[in-house]
Amino acid sequence: MLEVGLGCLALVFVCFQVGRAAILGALQQRHPGGFEGTLMGAVAGFTSTIAHAGAPPVVIYLLPQQFPRQIFVGTTVIFFASLNLLKLPPYWGLGLFHADIFKTTLLLAPLAYVGVKLGVFLNQRFSDVWFNRVIYGMLVVTAVQLIWGGNLLEMVLAT
């Protein structure tokens, strides 16, 4: 239910932003206040811990501010790195770390490095306008995936 609600929230946000842009002629820059930032940060932390779905609240908070792409990416990297460090002690206490997890981490670490390098490469080649368009598109894909319970990828691969 949490994933479906989060997916619906993300879709409503994108529809609102696109509708507002169509009416007003362009996306309006908006600086959400401290309360909104605290709320979305808490929602992102909760949903990231419970369902590994913390990105939509962060994106919903950051996109209207129309930060340059480097600031947007840097902010999300710092937020999720900090959040994941905070999750380590409880996960350790629950006994979620074992040899298989560490083996998988070592196996996938090179892919993480390649992903970072690819992200830096693409970030340097996108304009801020196209970067925001891609982020909105990814938010829609994430929302649909959350609503359909993660079965979207399975459905696409099955066709």
How do the strands and helices of this protein lay out in sequence?
Blueprint: H1 2-24, H2 34-51, H3 55-62, H4 69-93, H5 99-125, H6 128-147, H7 151-158
Helix pairs in contact: 1-6, 2-3
Task: Characterize the structure shown.
There is one protein chain. The mean pLDDT is 87. This protein is mainly α and 159 residues long. It has seven helices and no strands. It has one domain (2-97, 128-158).
State the end-to-end CA separation: 27 Å
Major pleated sheet: none
The radius of gyration computed from the alpha-carbon positions, rounded to a whole number of angstroms, is 17 Å
- The average pLDDT is 87
Count of folded domains: 1
Note the beta-strand portion. under 5%
Descriptive tags:
single chain; 81% helix; mainly alpha; 159 residues; 7 helices
Task: Compose a concise summary of this entry.
This protein is mainly α and 159 residues long. It is built from seven helices and no strands.
